[in-house]
Write a structure and sequence with these properties.
Length: about 130
């Protein structure tokens, strides 16, 4: 929404739903990896690392449903399946890459802020500090 526009609940819900899908960790990784061209399922899984077969399946299905990825099945034995970004998916790629760049560039500052926050005495108006992640 543009500044000064009236809040429209339906618009916010639609935006929140789309952002929930495209903003997930696995979606961002899948879109960024497919930015170099089509990949087979197992290639994609190997490149990403740490993603289960089930989670990758759910992620590419959701991306296909949203029109960001196409799935092509080739009649070989066993069948070969490739995933590729659509034009809509390619339009998201630039944003995903910018977000990844921001995360890499600002990781030290975020980690420093977390250390400072976690080192403060606990207050009633904030949740207890979480354990630091490796």
């Amino acid at each position: 929404m543009e500044p000064g526009n009236k809040h429209v609940t339906e618009d916010c819900r639609a935006v929140a739903e789309i952002l929930a899908n495209v903003g997930s960790k696995w979606t961002i990784l899948v879109v960024s990896r497919l930015g170099d061209g089509p990949l087979r399922f197992n290639e994609l899984r190997r490149i990403i690392g740490g993603i289960s077969q089930r989670m990758l399946t759910l992620t590419v299905r959701e991306l296909e449903r949203d029109g960001l990825v196409t799935r092509a099945v080739f009649p070989t034995i066993p069948p070969r399946v490739e995933y590729e970004l659509t034009a809509l998916g390619c339009s998201l790629l630039q944003t995903v890459q910018a977000l990844g760049d921001w995360a890499r560039n600002n990781r030290p500052a975020v980690e420093d802020a977390r250390r400072r926050y976690d080192g403060r005495p606990a207050r009633e108006d904030r949740p207890a500090a979480r354990a630091a992640h490796p």
